[in-house]
Amino acid sequence: MLSKMLYAKLSSIFVLLLMCCVPQAVVTAKRHRGSKWWLIHRGVVNAGAPSNNVLVNAKGDPVFLDARQQPFNRRQRRLVRKNAGSLVAIAKGTQRAINECKHQFKERRWNCPTYDGDHGKATFGNILRKGCRETAFIYAITSAGVGHTIARACSEGSIQTCTCDYSKRGPSGRDWEWGGCSGNVQFGYKFSRRFVDAAEKGKDIRYKMNLHNNNAGRLHVNTEMRQECKCHGMSGSCTVKTCWMRLPSFREVGTLLKDRFDGASRVTIGNRGNSNRAPRGKLKFEMETYNKNHKPPTRRDLVYIDNSPDFCAVDPTSGSEGTLGRQCNATSIGVDGCDLMCCGRGYRSEEREVVERCSCTFHWCCQVKCEICRSKKMVHTCL
Ligand SMILES: *[C@@H]1O[C@H](CO)[C@@H](O)[C@H](O)[C@H]1NC(C)=O
Q1: Which chain regions cross the lipid bilayer (predicted)?
Q2: Domain 323-383: top CATH class
């Protein structure tokens, strides 16, 4: 009798244990705060510090005024130490990614707000708790930012372990040859993969999502390389041309990733391979489209697992700032239009005086003189 009761009790404890310990692949209970290394964009402030404006200690690791803010983990620090000059590039790349995110989303309800705080989520806020489209974009653009800036830094000679890509050399076509400095995207891509992906750990689908989007982001730098040529010969007759591969501008990368954001695929844990014993360290599941009729995402597509909040009202827990007070366009029917931007709450219109420089003229040499013009413009803001 007693043993039976004990057995019942034990088995209920066992069930409880089972319930709380289902693998993370099934339940994503972990709090996601984003990547701590994003904090490095704040490092580029201290002019006069030894290494191009970023505070570093004797080992070359980034130093923050608040010592608890170590933005890099051990693998990342080792990588940065081995590639002298990369720290500044990472910091610049992260700042460029943040600026690009704000630019691409300036006319949307979620306009890529960033924050000052001391956790990983401090950079982009609580939106990172969810694996939604916005989160996918953040991972992709920051990973692309590192790859792009590192590749450029190689060409500028500011990283000791890389140069321009000189693998393309010599005559190639009938009337042109490779020459000059080709952007070293191979190095940028590999560096970004090692540095950015080193921040991700876990076994859940969110981890897979982050890695996929990191890779999708930096791939766009590689695929947008373009050939550029210069003519040589008598008075520009172009008898000989030398060509090299030019990096895309970061604006081009941002615009393409914004298109990927709009066409992102919702994914979920697939069944394929679930029952198989996976090799150690490998994840046992594959990502699968949420809607089985949809095409599977390519390597360059962004993927997400959660639907986005509507961003209409202020909700600090989901990283929504709401759209109260946002400017909108009264004649647009798009996402920047007042109907969508203000979520149907309506908007206030007022005439504001705008002060601009105008009728600028160029005076030899070298001055531009402008007049100050005042005009009235209608400004619409969400209620
Ligand atoms: C508002 O939207 C219309 C239609 O899309 C566009 O032509 C106009 O330039 C926009 N105005 C502003 C101030 O952006």
Answers
A1: none
A2: alpha beta
